[in-house]
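Worked example 2:
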Amino acid sequence: MKKIFISVALLALPFFGAMAQSIVATNQIIDCGQVLYQTPATFDFEVKNKSNKPVRITDVCTSCGCTDVAFPREAIAAGEKFTISITYDAATMGHFDKLVGIYNEGDDKPLLLRVRGSVVREVVDYGGNYNFMLGSIKSDCNDVEFDDVNRGDRPQKKIHIFNSTSAAVQPVVMHLPEYLKADVSPSNIAPGHGGVITMTLDSRKLDDMGLTQTSVFLGAFPGDKVNREKEIGISAVLLPKFDNLTAQQLANAPQLYLSTTELNLGHFDQKKKLKGEIVIRNDGKSVLKIKSLQMFTVGLQVSLNKQTLHPGESAKLKVTAEKRQLKTARSKPRVLMITNDPKQPKTTIKIVAE
């Protein structure tokens, strides 16, 4: 199959809404991760003519003159798969993100392909440990926590992964909720090489204050099967807002006191359950409201005799740990408390049960 190279400079590529197209790409975005300076990087896109008639590519438009595109010049048969190769010259240090529009005679709008990465003088690999297995891919963690999030924040967390298999993988994060985004770099990881998953939380899309938990799954390729071995636990703690309080309101606010923030329940030994108690007191000048009590893990049960405490009043928080369920927990046993104390709206109580 012959290919030609065309590079057409554009000031900008227009945005096109979703519509049916004759040619479609398996992946419209490829992230190559780190690219060596002055070493051109080539990205291969697998594309298919999904129409019922032959099509021919008529034009290629790029967002700058630093990219070249190779594509089949002859007509592409109905149902046929083919490759479009995009080469970035890597002549400029730093991050790059390039768009390429592929026009064919059957469509008014182009197929948009996107390539991105970072040009560096030296490729730097992750120096930590990969202590977890997510299916066939090693990782440095299997649990991600977005702690102390305010409404409007977009915090990020990174998971380092490593391909220990004998074949290239195309990692994909599956079952993402609408408030979470995952970018994998590079998109294709060769055997013996590593990559990074960047998880971004959109706090505006969280429904409730306090703890929100879910699970996502890391596949080795698009369409991979979901199972527990590939599970990544995700938790986010959204805080109440108190930034509009006056100095007088802060002076008269409730004040949470806990007898401990680390409750040691002892050893299970032959016991199936362990129990403990924490004293909660309002040392402030107005009513303390305990808005939420949530557990980070299975195997914990809590009960509270009062949720509203006037100044000077106390309550008892009883905690029960169940041995069988706690053994299956993915993260450390903790209790999350959300209150209207503006100085400590969120309190995490660590539970020790061995």
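Confidence is low (pLDDT under 50) at residues 1-18. The helical segments are 247-251, 323-326.
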